[in-house]
Amino acid sequence: MSDKLVKSINPANGEVLEIFTPFSSAALETALEKAADRFRKWRAVPLSERAELLNRAAEVLEAKVADYARDITLEMGKPLTEAEAEVKKCALVCRHYAEHGPGYMQDEIVSTEARRAFVRHLPMGPVLAVMPWNFPLWQAFRFAAPALMAGNVGLLKHASNVWRSALNIEDVFHRAGFPEGCFQTLLIGASRVESVIRDNRVKAVTLTGSGPAGRSVAAIAGDCIKPSLLELGGSDAFIVMPSADLDKAVQTAVNTRVRNSGQSCIAGKRFFVHADIYNDFSKRFVAAFDALKVGDPMKPETDVGPLAMLALRDELVDQVERSLKGGAERLTKERTVPGKGAWIAPQILADAHSGTPSTDEEMFGPVANLWKVSSLDDAITRANRSVFGLGSVLFSKEESEIDQAVRELEAGATFVNSMVASDPRLPFGGIKQSGFGRELAADGMRAFMNRKTVSVA
């Protein structure tokens, strides 16, 4: 993206919401220098003060849920109720690190021949976060809360279609009383990310986004010998076995697939159902999809809003058409969606053939792909054919099946009898082309810290 004016467009109706001016070179330089200067002071601030400020940030988020959520929905189209839940979850992650951060940073005592030996956790400096549009606040806060608690400072390069939300994040920390420079939003496009990563004042980079973006960022960081963390795409497997609570399995399958209007990396996207229960599951799954309410994301009764951008809708439509031409069958009814905006009807495709988008690509929207399997072995084999490895789900009451799924599914997480979700108390991340490194919990805090070995003779 060039330095031209950036328009924020409402994906529900195509109307321009706001126009932003990207940072000039001078403004970007000022921000980088401010971050470096602040880090030298911030790293010396006592943990108790950092925790107090994070708790204040949580209070700001809770007080302004309605305002921040409205901006999220206007910018990227998710149902307002989900946007409100997202803002509240950001408050939760701030409180988590305020409470548990000091413990995550404690010295690790090691017994050696030395008089004292331990591992100390020290901050690294300014960290750049390159964040996506699908969870505009949450993706950034799950980086920012541990980074600030650790004594680092944050620089946010957000997706250009959610710059109001990006500025709202900076506003949260300002209102909470964080010193100037602790967290800054950089209004820059993708073409300027490389120069920021290569800047000596920036010590590490984290990215949540697409595979191509991840490869680019990791290559640049590697060339600079700087740490990087990548949370990329997913095409999660959702396996249902005969012993499952079928009512719960169906409802969870619907919830995971259409949450955020289907635009979630950790959503179940490929559904593998045992032959013994396939017909019953399929009938219920289709009926539930057909009953979903598609419409104005500002209305509380809406289940599915528009996709975030027209280009995303067009890409998903193309993926569906190629899967249908490749042998898939659409099970859901045809329905009319608004003609203006980035709309697509929720749908279920069954029995897609290998080599089609349903099997080989991430489909980022409310499209579920369904297959009948003969056994758990069959399901796991099909699940593991994907190049992605973010999350996975198994619905079963059989302990042997649970143990096998945990052991054999190639993913960064396996959730049993529930949908995959990020939780501040648990590490979060993927394997294969879903990225590397872990966010959240102690792992997320230590991802950008110097684990310094200390030995005192």
How many DSSP E strands?
20
What is the helix fraction of residues, given as a range? 40-55%
Strand order in space, largest sheet: 12-13-14-11-10-16-17
CATH topology of the largest domain: Aldehyde Dehydrogenase, Chain A, domain 1
Report the sheet with the most strands, covering strand number, pairing sense and barrel closure.
7 strands, mixed
CATH class of the largest domain: Alpha Beta
Task: List the domain count as a whole number.
Answer: 2
CATH-wise, what's the superfamily of the largest domain? Aldehyde Dehydrogenase, Chain A, domain 1
Kindly report how far apart the N and C termini lie. 55 Å
Beta content comes to 15-25%
* Classification by helices and strands: alpha/beta
Whole-number mean pLDDT: 97
Quaternary structure annotation? single chain
Q: Roughly how many Å is the radius of gyration?
A: 23 Å
Number of helices: 15
The CATH architecture category of the largest domain equals: 3-Layer(aba) Sandwich
* Unreliably modeled segments: none
- The outline comes out as globular
